[in-house]
């Protein structure tokens, strides 16, 4: 169909090939990837099964669900979880959501045995992120104990014989992750950190000698202030490699060496550690590493030559990786598996086969989650850098309205939906997301902002949010909208802003303290910083120390930047969506905002969802949320 015979329809009212029902059906969550022998394993969270986590085994392209129907694979350590299962050639260990117990599954018989006892109260003892010893007699993993007055994180040894006897092997730090046993079985390494730091601010790498599950001579490999380390992992000859941002970028280092393993470039070989079990580098041979790198907000696969320290691009076809990658050798070829997306392909399980020179000889998609959206209806991400407050530059992705059947009137520019990602220490990427296409295919333009504080542009950019949350992130969301309007790409008088969690806070601040947007949607967003600093879960309870300030010493800042205290400045409609089982941003945040809006008589809609936590998983929830948001924008922007 040519441009001339498209139907002329106002922006925002186009018929879309992507319905809310399709979003719900396509919202299967892909989790971690593991591999052993000739099999690849990955986790799927399925909305049609109320978000149940199912492990899929794939051999020679043939899929098999191996999780019994009465189990739901999901860990809740740090609430965000990650590394819900791990394995070796004999056993697969997984965490079941019901009680957060750890189970052993035999990879031949698929028989399931409980390795840990039922906790004292529901989900009070939680496990994840483990490693199995070379004799398959025990695992060492993270345990999070929710006691009456505190939450305790530690590393524990759990025997695989089902005796359910648990020994604590490392304790004393507020947080632990990444326990990994060396291939020779002689050493173990891990990450740990303390409040008030978040793992992208300061972490320590430790190692210890290992003898039958007992740790001796434990000592730090990295113990330096203001340095964030990531993914300490052993090479095949039991050398320890890790990422660290000594020089302002997450580069790769080897234990005992001060210089990075590669030339210092403005590229990051790590991600903010929101979840457990991410893996962004892997050894191909003694002199070659394969790594996922982020450069200027875009990701690619890189080869690192340890001899000459060169970095070369293996493939830039995939531009958005989730931090899941494994490599296994089959028939003298390296098979690389990872989770990734690009501007025209949604997140998928990808297999890439390399020849002996590490050139790609084949590539295929193993998961069957393709959106099947007509390429002509896909709006592709366009990276944009734009001026913002303080004479600085911020970044983001712009998506123009796109539909093969419709176009807007020549006299009209499209309305804009500004998206503020969560975190706030996270990043927007360019991978195909049906939730973005839901808007662009209806005639809305979308701006996905990597405001100052986002990952992917180096530590200096990431640190620009310190003490400035609710200020520079909001400035950047406004600046991107104004930049696009000045470029003649959108209607600057018809802009909305949306975000969830930390992005919801940015949204509420933008709507409360500025008069730029005509409407907004906050999904389990933060409204009261004081309440969040007291009520949040352990992992994030001190997060605000860095991005806002210490409390109660700087209580005045908390009061000034809490939208709930300044609803008198609010003059546009707000849609608020909230899960009633949210432990990260509790419902009292939304309820406080709603009460303030009621008292002021301001327009709002408030929709709650039973059985939903921090992130909506159920199909009915997803459908209702998107239909309500679409109706809200059409009412206030069109």
From TrEMBL:
Q: Which InterPro entries match?
A: 6-blade_b-propeller_TolB-like, AB_hydrolase_fold, Peptidase_S9_cat, Xaa-Pro_dipeptidyl-ppase/CocE
User: According to its UniProt record, what is one Pfam family this protein matches?
Assistant: Peptidase_S9
Domain called Peptidase S9 prolyl oligopeptidase catalytic: residue spans: 433-637
Source species, domain of life: Bacteria
Concerning Gene3D superfamilies, the annotation shows: alpha/beta hydrolase, TolB, C-terminal domain
Membrane spanning segments where?
A: none
Q: Tell me the protein's name.
A: S9 family peptidase
Organism lineage string: Bacteria, Pseudomonadati, Pseudomonadota, Gammaproteobacteria, Kangiellales
């Amino acid at each position: 169909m040519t441009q001339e015979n498209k139907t002329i329809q106002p922006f925002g009212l186009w018929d879309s090939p992507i319905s809310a029902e399709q979003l719900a059906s396509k919202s299967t969550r892909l989790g971690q990837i593991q591999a052993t022998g000739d099999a690849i394993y990955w986790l799927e969270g399925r909305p049609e099964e109320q978000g149940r986590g199912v492990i899929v085994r794939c051999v020679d392209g043939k899929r098999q669900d191996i999780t019994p129907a009465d189990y739901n694979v999901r860990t809740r350590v740090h609430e965000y979880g990650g590394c819900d299962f791990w394995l070796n050639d004999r056993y697969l260990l997984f965490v079941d959501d019901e009680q957060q117990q750890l189970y052993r599954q035999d990879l031949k018989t698929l028989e399931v045995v409980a390795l840990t006892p039922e906790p004292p109260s529901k989900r009070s003892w939680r496990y994840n992120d483990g490693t199995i010893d070379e004799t398959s007699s025990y695992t060492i993993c993270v345990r999070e104990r929710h006691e009456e007055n505190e939450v305790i994180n530690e590393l524990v040894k759990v025997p695989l014989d089902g005796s359910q006897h648990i020994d604590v092997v490392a304790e004393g730090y507020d947080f632990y992750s990444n326990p990994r046993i060396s291939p020779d079985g002689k050493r173990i390494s891990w990450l740990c950190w303390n409040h008030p730091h978040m793992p992208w601010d300061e972490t320590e790498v430790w190692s210890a000698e290992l003898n039958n599950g007992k740790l001796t001579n434990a000592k730090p490999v990295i113990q330096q202030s203001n340095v964030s380390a990531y993914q300490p992992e052993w090479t095949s000859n039991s050398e320890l490699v890790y990422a660290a941002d000594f020089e302002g970028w997450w580069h790769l280092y080897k234990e005992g060496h001060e210089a990075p393993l590669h030339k210092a470039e403005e590229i990051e070989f790590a991600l903010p550690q929101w979840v457990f079990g991410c893996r962004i580098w892997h050894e191909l041979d003694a002199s070659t590493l394969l790594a996922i790198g982020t450069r200027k907000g875009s990701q690619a696969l890189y080869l690192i030559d340890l001899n000459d320290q060169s970095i070369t691009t293996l493939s830039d076809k995939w531009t958005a990786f989730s931090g899941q990658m494994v490599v296994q050798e089959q028939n003298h070829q390296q098979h690389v598996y990872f989770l990734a997306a690009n501007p025209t392909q949604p997140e998928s399980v990808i297999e890439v086969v390399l020849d002996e020179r590490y050139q790609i000889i084949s590539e295929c998609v193993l998961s069957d989650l393709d959106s099947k959206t007509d390429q002509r209806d896909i709006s592709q991400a366009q990276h944009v850098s734009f001026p913002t407050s303080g004479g600085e530059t911020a970044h983001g992705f712009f998506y123009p309205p796109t539909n093969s059947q419709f176009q807007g009137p020549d006299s009209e520019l499209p309305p804009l939906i500004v998206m503020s990602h969560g975190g706030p220490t996270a990043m927007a990427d360019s991978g195909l997301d049906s939730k973005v296409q839901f808007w662009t295919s209806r005639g809305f333009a979308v701006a996905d902002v990597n405001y100052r504080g986002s990952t992917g542009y180096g530590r200096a950019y990431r640190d620009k949010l310190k003490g400035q949350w609710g200020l520079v992130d909001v400035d950047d969301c406004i600046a991107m909208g104004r930049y696009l309007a000045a470029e003649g790409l959108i209607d600057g008088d018809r802009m909305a802003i949306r975000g969830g969690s930390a992005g919801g806070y940015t949204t509420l601040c933008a709507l409360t303290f500025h008069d730029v947007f005509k409407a907004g949607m906050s999904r389990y967003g933060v409204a009261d910083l004081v309440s969040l600093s007291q009520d949040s879960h352990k992992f994030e309870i001190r997060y605000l120390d860095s991005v806002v300030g210490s409390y109660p010493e700087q209580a005045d800042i908390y009061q000034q930047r809490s939208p709930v205290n300044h609803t008198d400045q609010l003059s546009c409609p707000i849609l608020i969506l909230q899960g009633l089982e949210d432990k990260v941003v509790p419902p009292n945040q939304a309820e406080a905002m709603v009460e303030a809006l009621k008292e002021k008589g301001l327009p709002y809609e408030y929709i709650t969802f039973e059985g939903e936590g921090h992130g909506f998983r159920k199909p009915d929830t997803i459908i209702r949320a998107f239909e309500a948001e679409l109706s809200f924008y059409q009412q206030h922007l069109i």
